[in-house]
Amino acid sequence: MQFKQVQLDNGLRIIAEINPAAKSMAAGFFVRTGSRDETSEVSGVSHFLEHMMFKGTARRSPADVNLEFDNMGANYNAFTSEELTVYYGSVLPEFQERLLDLLCDMLRPALRQEDFDIEKNVILEEIALYEDQPRFRVYDNLMNHYFTGHPLGQSILGSSASIRALKREQMQTYFDARYASDNITVVTVGNVQFDEFVAKVRSMCGAWKPSQAGRATPTPPQVSGVKILRDPKIVREHLAFMSPAPAAQEESIYAAQLLSTIIGDSTGSRLFYALVEPALVDEASMAYDAMDHAGGFMTFLSTDPDRASEVLAIAQREYRKFMDQGPTADELTAAKNKIASAATLKGELPMGRLTAVGYDWMYRNEYVTLPTQIDKMFAVTGQQIHDMARQYDLTKLAVLALGPLEKI
Question: Which of 293, 139, 289 is nearest to 220 (CA)?
Answer without folding.
Answer: 293
